[in-house]
Amino acid sequence: MGTYRADVVGSLLRPRYLSEAREAFEVGRLEPAEFRRVEDRAVDQAIALQEGVGMDVVTDGEMRRFTFFDQLITAVEGLSEVPAKPVPFHAADGNDIDFQSPESVTGKLTRKQMLTPPEFAYSRARAFKPLKVTLPSPLMTYAMYTPERSGEVYPDPFDMFRDAADLVREEAHVLASHGCRYIQIDAPDLCEMVDPVMREHWASLGIEPDRVLGEGIEIINSVADADGVDFALHLCRGNYQSRWIAGGGYESISKQLFAKASNFDRFVLEYDDERAGTFEALADMPEEKTAVLGLVSTKTNELESFDHLIARVEDASKFHPKETMAVATQCGFASVAMGNEITERTQEEKLRLVAAVARRVWG
Description:
This protein is of the alpha/beta class. The chain is built from eleven helices and ten strands. Helices cover 36% and strands 14% of the residues.
């Protein structure tokens, strides 16, 4: 396994020129080859930014994606234009918004294409640092599950999760065969289980929360079985235009999580504010696993105190060995293309801060 102390979650803010190019491409005013050149430029810039500030790991910033789980939206068959149930995202100022998938699962999930192997091939040729590829949790298909329509094809939603897992696992194996050595599975779905309101939301879809914490974790764990790959499991409480879905500490899920997600080498955990609870849940993580502390928020323009972050690492080390820890931001900066309410300058400063904290703590 690689030793990565300054880690990065995945997405970066899309440059304005990329957003404008995507709009032009979608209405037919930009040819596919020209749009690809614009995407290439944005990926080059993303890699250069991360390497320039001193990160130990880089991604392509998810510049070619609209959402972090495009692999389960644009790359699969079995979806129809039937809106799914809205999911509320909360803001500190009370300006909440809903995210509603415009499509629902109405057929068996099958592959249309693979997105990440060509992403990886391009970025590998340009990155000097280890390159991480992000894939979505198969449980993210819950956001497109409607009991009325999806239930006709998948009376048991966990059969849908298993089909999605087959697709994610296959993509991970192809990435491994192409030389990818670090893959992260993004699973905000699991953190929704710490919030009673979100547990009720899942139950209203006919998805039993206790099964999510048992069978669901086992399904996620099954995708992380490619030889020679470091697998990370990223958990956060939602990230959409600086808003979140859930609140609550890891303590209510940590024992099941760390015991059942045994194929994962690293756990990238959101710890940027009080919604994440205390570090006590880290005591449930096996000592040989790496706890990547997501201490720096991607949701606000306020820059964290360097000394405070150092102190937070020390606090965490009371529950997990410091030699198997690392630091990161708590989530990506743009889980969807619109991005969080943060400036590109602050994004760079926060990444630089993560790298500086890692150097101070681990040298």
